[in-house]
Give the backbone structure.
Amino acid sequence: MDKLILERGFLIDCKNKIMQGQSIRSLAEEVHIDRKTLRKNILAILSEEEKEKFQKVLSNNFRKNKKSARTIKKEQREENYKKAIKTLTLLGIAREDIEAIFESINKNEHTTMAKDTFAIKLVEIFDFIEKRNEGMNPSDKGYITKQDVIHMILRDSRFMTNDVERKLEPICDIFDNWSPNISKGQVNRYIVEYPSIFKNSIKKLKMHLIIGDNFLVKTGNQYMSLSEYILTENPFLISENSQRFLEGVCNLRDAHMSGVIPAEELEKRIEPINLAWKKYELPEYTDDKSFKKAIKEIVRGVDKEGKRQKGEEI
């Protein structure tokens, strides 16, 4: 500590500022002195009477300047909100659109958010979409515009509740890498059109796609795997109960012993499935590898049953 700055004149000046209402903490920060050191040195030059007055003012100033944890938290939330709104403005998001989204999500008790949480999450979502657009031109069909994002949220407010790192990014990674026949641009258009797809768990999504890899669908004059059909034509199949889904497609394949399921029959199925009796039991999912193996064994059983019905050699 530089002894020169603790000269009597300096300490008296500090004492006078504190007596006038300045907090010792702010004063110590101004002159780069430890608060306790400053207080100790000021007290050392005072008489007993002056010490008593000084201590009283110091105590009053402390109570006056001390912020409650609640106040500090409130101020921090307000600061976070302002920063997020500034970022959104720089991204070109109109204030009226921000307000419309906030109003929309707060109409639903399941999506209600504090304004700072809302603004921060909205920034995260636009950052996520910016990554989805990497390598694309704004004129590309797969490019997701800011208006696309706004409409996605207004159409399905629960989209805003998804965690980017734990839900949005992992699901899109699955879509991007499931089939070489489906491009990133197609996935982008898919999630814009069906933002509700993110309501499904990652586990359920994988289960349905793994099941789908074992079946073919005929749509018009085209043939594709059921998983590709789900990812390009009918995402609503993922929302179905997994046991019902497996049993439904197995029963359809039983009925069409050719091994190909017409797309139109996927829409209506043959008949409602009675889940109390499961002809095709959904295996437990623990990991991709074991679930794929279990599903293949079930499908081989479907194939064998179909051949028996046709009188073919197994």
Summary: The radius of gyration is 33 Å. The longest strand covers residues 216-219.
